[in-house]
Design brief:
alpha/beta; five-stranded mixed β-sheet
Length: 336
């Protein structure tokens, strides 16, 4: 009997050992079936919560995609990655595709899904200003954004809407690199205000170094602030990948629309290991409350024309581009 038990035990061990590699092999085989796609994002920000929900909830894998995420740190760098083929898809302000088109791109980078419908930055003052009005910026110094970039253009658009001349009525410092303005504001910089994305705006408040006095997203109205784009040739060669990618994004958007800021924050928390959950939740709520995310991802013509109005107003548009040239709504309309 002892021999039989020993043989049974040995057999079980052998079966367990041999089954393990088969399981690992099967998993690797499944991974090999996934279509690889590289996404270059302009910045890694809670502003883009639906995208991170799609990643953390496994929606890209569910669609059969092995998605690699890279942060470009600026629309110019993200666009360069897409044009060079280093990235398959870019996530940035649609103005970058217009600039590339104006330069005579032979393989235009076309927008196919819109994620945000409001600006994601905030005006931060050194002191609390509960009754802030835009005219309070007269004669003041503000840390702004890169010339020709959406953050700066939307800021100047708001100023003009409120009767201010960006060149004459205030001083806008555009010399500081993207992402470094908050540090400059808390340092020796003499600026009275700074325009910040999250989590910098909330971080300045927590430090007692600044106070959010206005939302550019609220005061500029609905603007097609960030969208996904790809080269025409890539879209034509890979329609299945494009549709699956958009499907995953739509699922992320659906989740955001149906869940609370607290639930959204818990899902995307792994994407922001250096930010505590309470801060993530506060930031998500700030964006959630101002209706930041576009429910159906369709980049409409009205939004595209408004974007060109803003570019024209900023002196960055040589000539207007037909909507059909730089926007493809097929994948967003068919997303499920």
């Amino acid at each position: 009997m002892k021999n039989k038990k020993w043989i049974s035990l040995a057999t079980a061990v052998v079966l367990a050992v041999t089954a393990l590699p088969l399981g690992v092999f099967a998993a690797k085989k499944d991974e090999a079936k996934l279509a690889k796609v590289t996404l270059n994002e302009v910045a890694h920000s809670i502003f883009y919560a639906p995208q991170y929900v799609a990643i953390e909830e496994g929606y890209f894998k569910d669609e059969g995609l092995d998605m690699t995420l890279i942060t470009g740190f600026g629309a110019d760098k993200t666009m360069t990655a897409v044009i060079s083929g280093e990235a398959d898809i870019g996530f940035m302000g649609a103005e970058a595709s217009i600039y590339a088109y104006q330069e005579g791109a032979t393989d235009p980078v076309v927008n196919f899904a819109q994620l945000t419908q409001r600006a994601g930055n905030f005006l931060v003052a050194r002191e609390e200003m509960p009754d802030f009005k835009w005219e309070d910026l007269k004669g003041r110094k503000v840390l702004g954004g890169r010339k020709g970039g959406m953050p700066e253009m939307v800021f100047e658009y708001i100023l003009k809407q409120n009767g201010l001349d960006p060149q004459k009525d205030l001083s806008i410092d555009q010399s500081i690199d993207f992402g470094a303005t908050a540090a400059a504001f808390t340092g020796d910089n003499s600026a009275d205000f700074t325009v910040e994305f999250e989590p910098s705006a909330t971080a300045l408040e927590k430090q007692g170094a600044g106070y959010v006095v206005a939302s550019l997203g609220v005061d500029s109205g609905y603007v097609p602030y960030t969208s996904y784009s790809a080269k025409t040739s890539y879209m034509e060669k890979n329609p299945d990948i494009m549709q699956k990618f958009t499907n995953a994004l739509q699922k992320g958007m659906d989740y955001v629309q149906k869940h609370t800021p607290e639930e959204i924050a818990r899902v995307i928390e792994p994407q922001f290991p250096e930010t505590d959950l309470d801060t993530i939740t506060a930031i998500v709520k700030r964006y959630y409350d101002q209706d930041t995310w576009k429910k159906n991802l369709v980049f409409g013509q009205e939004g595209f024309e408004l974007l060109q109005d803003i570019l024209e107003d900023a002196g960055e548009l040589k000539e207007r581009t037909p909507y059909e040239e730089l926007v493809n709504t097929e994948f967003a309309q068919n997303a499920s």
